[in-house]
Write a structure and sequence with these properties.
single chain; 336 residues; alpha/beta; TIM Barrel; two-stranded antiparallel sheet; 11 strands; 41% helix; globular; Luciferase-like monooxygenase; oxidoreductase activity, acting on paired donors, with incorporation or reduction of molecular oxygen; CmoO-like
Length: 336
């Protein structure tokens, strides 16, 4: 075995906490981006979701511009843009604009899921007739719009053409692994809410990877949850906000991110608890020493090149402190 440092990044859902508003969430996101930039985080990605009371990052491209404009060095991008919700040309223009404003700092992570419930997805997509099945073709269209060779085409992305925008394939199942490998693109897996197929997806991607102009060797990033505090008990207490959020998903009763509670047994059944813990099995919860051991095991098992951390933490100061503790852990070299 050899040792290496693992890049570390942030996934932000612009969570709206109980008693707060999206306006407050955006200001907190910028503060968190500036803070994590100072801690050596590589990327700060925002996720496209719709019709969710607790997630304010629906206008993802707009929010990326806000965060990039308030930071200096950290890469800012989408984790991800749900491409079938949009015209490929419009996304090329939006990210071409972002890449022109903040050269060398913008990432475009692409997913095929709607990022919402089926009814809302129908409303979003009813005017474009796009389907998840169109996703590979749309990725090809984006590649074309960003290429300098498209300058003689009748339809061009201005701005966008010739702008360096690294594109990623995102996934929560094995389907996306095949596609990322085929296109020779970096691959990010949503282990923060759908960890079941993560290891299988990584194996498929690595085994099937075809080198491309963008990427010569496979590059894997796992998105995971991290809730870290001074002690395991404190971290487990903070994690009850995440448990409540996922319980709401199970019950289809979405609500703002709730304060932590001392006893989840008052809120869920044994069956619900088992479901939530399965969904959150891609999580690191505990003190810094606890998560260091857990991350070492995870890295050795998966061979990831980068970890992206999401934190469902109600108290903003505790959230900032969690990201600080994570950064200290990630300064270590891990056996792979």
């Amino acid at each position: 075995m050899s040792k290496k440092k693992i890049a570390y990044s942030v996934l932000d859902l612009a969570a709206v906490t109980e008693g707060s508003t999206p306006e407050h969430s955006f200001k907190k996101s910028l503060k968190l981006a500036q803070y994590t930039e100072s801690l050596g985080y590589t990327r700060y990605w925002l996720a496209e979701h719709h019709n969710m009371a607790s997630i304010a990052s629906s206008a993802t491209s707009v929010l990326i511009g806000y965060i990039a404009g308030g930071t200096k060095t950290i890469r800012v991008g989408s984790g991800g843009i749900m491409l079938p919700n949009h015209s490929s040309l419009i996304i090329a223009e939006q990210f071409g604009t972002l890449g022109s404003l903040y050269p060398g700092r913008i990432d475009l992570g692409l997913g095929r899921a709607p990022g919402t419930d089926q009814l809302t997805a129908m409303v979003i997509r009813k005017s474009n007739n796009l389907r998840a099945e169109d996703f590979p073709q749309q990725v090809m269209e984006l590649k074309t719009y960003f290429s300098k060779e498209n300058s003689t085409a009748k339809v061009r992305a201005i701005p966008g053409e010739g702008v360096d925008i690294p594109m990623w394939i995102l996934g929560s199942s094995t389907d996306s692994a095949h596609l990322a490998a085929y296109f020779g693109m970096p691959y990010a897996f949503a282990g923060h809410f759908a960890p079941a197929q993560m290891q299988t997806a990584f194996s498929i991607y690595t085994n099937e990877f075809k080198p491309s102009e963008q990427l010569k060797e496979p590059y894997i990033m796992a998105c995971v949850n991290a809730i870290v505090a001074g002690t395991d008990d404190e971290a487990n207490y903070l994690a009850t906000s995440a448990y409540q959020a996922f319980l709401g998903i199970l019950r289809d009763k979405r609500q703002l991110l709730q304060p932590p509670v001392k006893n989840m047994n008052d809120l869920w059944t044994d069956v619900e608890a088992a479901h939530v813990m399965q969904m959150l099995s891609g999580s690191f919860i505990g003190s810094a020493s606890t998560i260091q051991k857990d991350i070492q095991s995870f890295v050795a098992q998966t061979g990831v090149d980068e970890l992206m951390f999401n934190a469902h933490i109600y108290d903003f100061d505790a959230k900032m402190h969690s990201y600080k503790l994570v950064s200290e852990v990630m300064q270590s070299e891990f056996e792979v």
